Amino acid sequence: MSDNKANFNEAINLIKKSAESRSYDIWIPSLKRDVKFKPLNTLHHKKFVKILIDTSMFNTALNLHVYDIIKQTCIDETVVVDDLDIFDRLAVCYAMRQHNFKKKYLIALDDKEEREISFATLLAKFKKGYKRMDPDCITEGEISINVSLPTLKREREFDNYIFNKHLVSFDKNNTEQINQIFTDLMLFGTIQYIDSIKVGDVLIDIDSMRTDQKVEILGNFDSILTAKISNYIKKCNDLRTELCSIDVLNGKDEPQTVEISIDSSFFVDE
Amino acid sequence: MKSFNKIWIPSAGKLCKFNEITHLQEKIILKSLGQSNGAYSSFLYALGVIMTENALEPIKFTTIDRLFYGIYTRAYCFGNDLEYQIKCHACNRTVKYSLNLADIVQALEFLSKKFNKVVELPISKLQVNLTVPDLSRDIAFREYIEADRNDYALLSTMESILYMEYCTMGEIMFPLYEYDVLQTADIIDSLEHEDTSFLHSKVEDFKTSIFNTNADKLLELSCVCGQNLISYDLSSTSFDNFLTMIYNGDLNTFYSKELNFRVMFPGGDVNSMAPIERDLLINLKNSINQQAEIESDPKNGEIDLASM
Asked: Could you tell me if A87 and A118 lie in one domain?
């Protein structure tokens, strides 16, 4: 720095450092502790808008962007972002929405009434009484498969695959392409939950395989095995729904449960 | 022999010498009007580049200088008077409204003074110094936008970027005028959203304050319809919009003046002609055509100046 004049890189670093002084805590359920995060910057906000415009039909680009944001804004160096799980990401998303957006988050009920959502209530569900989804071992004949909640690393690998295969040249009007994406999402979505596969005494090193090779392995499982994996995924999804749901009173003062899903519009102020 | 014009340049506070505008430059300016893209117009870019090309003195121009150059050039090429039809909202009648560019220039006399404002961003406490944009920076931004008109994210921040001269954080200064387009955009993008929104609104206020410095004088140029004072709404426009407006009205005039016939003269090129030469040539052609009609011997639109 010459004569107190900062060049571009120095200026960017000073702004980033200044943002660190305004960090805030987010409770990470899998770590059972608070972790410090920097506030979102304008580029993060802009990219949410771009994703909403370009690929709002799928959450792939959104997941990738949220992963990048977590990497860029988490200032606790002891946290390995890749090892966090997809429920940690839910907690981070709700906390980021609460901290970085001034505007109230309103949700339309069945009777068209609007209600403001309390993120504090939602976030409390990830803290007190939170029960982590346990890993499981699924066996059928000689094959045994260890399954668990996907980590952000595994989810990112899957999202990157889908994004590069389909969304780089995505055309909203191409129904054939849209159908293909949905098929791939269903098929490849299962792979994220698989930790390891054992056939007899032989361990298949699935982590070292490419995504398309993993799909081929999965394609060779019989339907009973696939159904058992799907059953585990369903349990994860049920738990996710429970974590993301909140009770509100409708226009007739009757309780109604609403799920606060995190899609492309979640981070965009109208 | 090439002649030059003397034009009032507010940032220099004096009359500055410029090469006379050529017919080709006229064409570039007016054709760029049709290629404009909202506020980030090809027209303003073309006008800025031509102003820089024609300048005979090494001056660091601002966009307000471009306003004066644009008004002068419009008057020089197409005359001082502008006529519009505007509707009187009180009586619903359409009224003829005239503007004289010499009056406009006189009304803008206070723009000679410097405009600066310091804004402190609420979150980062970064102090941003706003000023009238430098013309070379404006040209560089427009070149970038021209290369990628679909970069809506940059488009939205561009207006603010242009007006930011430098920032200070405590004792440290960020000389934005030394950074390039993308680097300045990155500085804005690295700020928190609340700061950026605040900055955009303050830049808008700053632009309005510059305009309002002379708005009352511009409003004196209104016309009267019965009991009502009506005008082209200069108070709600910007100088860039105003500049575009005074040229927009010339499109038809221009196309009627474009030299779309063959011209031959020794060592000459139509595109290098000055507006006065162009008008002389058109008058000459018209008089020849009239004469030809009388003699029933049309010249098929060809003029051979060398034989005259």
From this structure: yes
Return the closest-CA partner of residue A147 out of A139, A159, A157.
A139
**Closest Cβ–Cβ partner in B123, B172, B186 for A6:** B172
Task: From B282, B284, B292, select the one nearest B308 (Cα to Cα).
Answer: B284
Nearest-Å Rg of the Cα atoms of chain B is 23
Residue A214 lies in a domain: yes
* Residue ranges in chain B whose pLDDT is less than 70: 1-2, 35-40, 84-90, 146-156, 214-238, 249-273, 277-278, 280-308
B179/A100 touch (CB, cutoff 8 Å), yes or no: no
Q: Does B153 touch chain A (CB under 8 A)?
A: yes
User: Which pLDDT score, from 0 to 100, does residue B221 have?
Assistant: 63
- Per the CB < 8 A criterion, the answer to whether B247 and B30 are in contact is yes
Give the domain ranges of chain B. Answer: 113-213, 259-307
User: Can you tell me the distance from the alpha carbon of B179 to that of B184, in angstroms, rounded to the nearest whole number?
Assistant: 6
Does B181 reach chain A within 8 Å, measured CB to CB?
no
d(CA A268, CA B275): 53
Q: What was the ipTM of the complex prediction?
A: 0.80
State how many domains chain A has: 2
Q: Are residues A35 and A121 in the same domain?
A: yes
CB contact under 8 A, B190 and A4: no
Q: What is the largest CA-CA distance in chain A?
A: 74
- Are residues B261 and B301 in contact, defined by beta-carbon separation less than 8 angstroms? yes
User: What does pTM read for this prediction?
Assistant: 0.77
For residue B57, the 8-state DSSP code is S
Yes or no, beta carbons of B190 and A12 under 8 Å apart:
yes
Q: Where are the alpha helices (DSSP H) in B190-274?
A: 193-219, 239-248, 251-257
- Contacting residues of A for B123, CB less than 8 Å apart: 22, 39
Q: Are residues A67 and A162 in the same domain?
A: no
Tell me which fold the domain B113-213 belongs to. rbstp2171 (3.30.2220)
The answer to whether residue A249 sits within a structural domain is: no
Contact B187 A11 (CB under 8 A): yes
Find the mean pLDDT for residues A223-248.
Answer: 92
